[in-house]
Amino acid sequence: MPTIHRQAGWRFHFYSGDHPPPHVHAEKDGAEARFDLLPVRLTRNDGVRARDLEWLQTVIEAQATEFEKAWHGFFGTSGPSR
To answer: In terms of residue numbers, what domain contains 57?
Structure first.
């Protein structure tokens, strides 16, 4: 489960068995959300508060290119597609 970024107590990662499309998981204090990277959009929420989801979306939008590069580098797929 590679961690690709940490900010404000949040850990941004993906799972080694993850599948396309490229996406990132954000986790803190037992709550987790999943965001697709292209375009950045929430695809799953497990206990993350609405105001945190908005902030997470902003962080992921700012880091999307780097997150996508990390995804393709780990999984050995072509990309990034931006």
So the answer is: 3-75
Q: Is 1 helix (H, G, I), strand (E, B) or coil?
A: coil
Look at residue 81 and tell me if it is in a domain: no
Question: Over the stretch 57-78, which tens digit does the pLDDT of each residue have?
Answer: 999 999 999 999 999 999 998 8
What are the tens digits of pLDDT across the range 12-24?
A: 999 999 999 999 9
Residue 25 one-letter amino acid? H
56-62 contact pairs (CB < 8 A, 24+):
56/10, 56/26, 59/7, 59/10, 59/12, 59/26, 60/12, 60/24, 60/26, 60/35
pTM: 0.92
